[in-house]
Amino acid sequence: MKTTGFRLTALALIIAALIGTAAQTSAQQKLTLLNVSYDPTRELYQDYNTAFARYWKTKTGQNVTINQSHGGSGAQAHSVIDGLQADVVTLALAYDIDAISQSGQIPANWQSRLPNNSTPYTSTIVFLVRGGNPKHIKDWNDLVKPGISVITPSPKTSGGARWNYLAAWGYALSVNHNDQARAREFVTQLYKNVPVLDSGARGATTTFSKRGIGDVLIAWENEAYLAVKELGKDKLEIVIPSRSILAEPPVSVVDKVANKRGTATVAKAYLEYLYSDEGQEIAARNYYRPRSKAVAAKYSSQFQKLNLFTIQDVFGGWQNAQKTHFADGGIFDQIYGK
Amino acid sequence: MITAPQTTRRKGSVRAGDAPWVKWPLIALALTFMLVVLVLPLASVFVEAFAKGWQVYLDSIRDPDALSAIRLTLTASGIALTMNLLFGLAAAWAISRFSFKGKNLLISLIDLPLAVSPVVAGLIFVLLFGLHGWFGTWLDDHNIQILFAVPGIVLATIFVTFPFVARELIPFMQAQGTEEEEAALVLGASPWRMFFSITLPNIRWSLLYGVILCSARAMGEFGAVSVVSGHIRGETNTLPLHVEILYNEYNFAAAFAVASLLSLVAVVTLAVKKIIEDKTGRRGEKA
């Protein structure tokens, strides 16, 4: 009796497994796009994907489903290089898309294929502090004071963290008459106040907001707004520094994948629609600074004016910044290793 | 001769461990430790899961992405379990019934996945099946997607749960010997008849024990699967990965609701394990 029971259970298990795989394969027969993105864009693309699917349906009559994958920008780029079938990538910095391009999946001129260096929205780096700003943090020079605990993720793995680092460096240069040695001293002091380096921007935000570690979080502007929205204005406050960096998170079609999957047209349209009024509105609603002047004017109260410098002007572009600061043995390794 | 001095010492004084001032603090320490490390975290999962009420709990589990994660987890662990069941039986049979060269090496190899960190296990598959891996170009030319798709997740799950069934069966079958099976063959039973009427009933509790451990581990695996999954929502997210995603989206109640499903698996595993131990009288000792 018991043996029959066992045979039946074993049989049932095998059948269940087979049905499971069969269902999995039959579900893949419709028009889908995979957008491989970085950590803080979850909410943005959740909204945008619905809007684009509606737009595409009215324009072509086709139903399109957009799947999302999120993670640290560098790690995501690596997955795409290793074969993650991304039709489009929307990452934190051009350097990561350059890396995919070097593996042969995207043409080298990718950044000139869409307006504004292929960055449909921008952001900047701001501070998030505890409600009431108990440590009176106003600007970058408050972060290097002794006894201030600063939370920022690791620039080795997180795109956002690299923007944070470069924003601090750029500020230090501007107040020290472009003295690189003084800037390095300033950034060294700053990272002495960092007790823990998370691997991604979202991880650092939860460390600060949910686990209550640190006095100030250096974060993407959109990430800071979102944290305040989720956790309450009485608990967290945004502080805009006097100067910061213009962060340009770029987008690109992954040509090799899109051509193979036959999704090149819809993938291109998906990125182009980010520049439309609706796309720009969605970006602004999710606290990304829109490129469109009209939409920017409409949301001007939301985005405070501050002095923004670009990575091109201060660091000579991503390739240079990466080589000098974040490569193995670069300046970050030297100052954080000490 | 050897026991004599011990008995004389016992008469003179109470053993150190028996004194109440030693016993009670030790018990209290153990209980506190268990409460803090095991019971509290488990309870907190359920408290957080229901923090926003039943409705939110049900909605979080009925969410299409959550359902797809449940489906994927069941599929992957179902296939992994079947494969490891077949392999475990075959390996245990070979090791306990025959002697051959390299037997000890085989036993050590079966344990390999327990020694390898799950993240490394995942990276092994990236090295093999990644676009720039050993088989990457060939797979790409033939349009076969293993990494960042269901097959990769299944492979990673099989790898990390590989030893569980075999490890349970090998010592048990070795201890049991071959007399009953030889008797069956001598009496004219076919090999299949012998297997289903003699071997399987004998090993059924060990087998079930292995199956339970294997499936619990398969459903809970995070590290290896995280490396090979690609994190595509609704496509390649297993339950543990879905918990991480929800948590990172400030969706704490939903994250804990899904986590409570995994905790339930753990509780059920524990209960079944206890029942099997009672049935077979194997408490702690490996048969």
What keywords describe this structure?
A: alpha/beta; 16 helices; 11 strands; about 15% strand; globular; B: mainly alpha; about 80% helix; disordered N terminus; disordered C terminus
Structural features, described:
The complex is a heterodimer of chains A (338) and B (287). Chain A has 338 residues and is α/β, with parallel strands linked by helices. Chain A contains 16 helices and 11 strands. In chain A, helix 2 (42-60) packs antiparallel against helix 12 (277-285), helix 3 packs parallel to helix 4 (94-102) and helix 8 (201-209) packs parallel to helix 9 (221-231). With 287 residues, chain B is mainly α. Helices cover 78% and strands 0% of the residues of chain B. The radius of gyration of chain B is 24 Å and the shape is globular. The A-B interface holds A 2-3, 6-7, 10, 13-14, 16-17, 20-21, 23-24, 34, 36, 39, 42-43, 67-71, 79, 81-85, 103, 202-203, 206, 210, 226-227, 230-231, 260 and B 71-72, 74-75, 78-79, 81-82, 85, 126, 129-133, 136, 140, 143, 145, 147-148, 150, 196-197, 200-201, 204, 207, 230-235, 245, 247-250, 252.
Specify the number of helices of chain B. 14
Which range best describes the helical content of chain A: under 10%, 10-25%, 25-40%, 40-55%, 55-70% or over 70%? 40-55%
Most residues in contact, chain pair and counts = A-B, 39 and 40 residues
Residues in β-strands, percent of chain A? 15-25%
Categorize the overall geometry of chain B: globular
Outline the biggest β-sheet of chain A. 7 strands, mixed
Task: List the secondary-structure elements of chain A in sequence, H or E.
Answer: HEHEHEHHEEHHHEHEEEHHHEHEHHH
* Continuous helix count of chain A: 16
Oligomer: heterodimer
Q: Write down the overall mean pLDDT of chain B.
A: 87
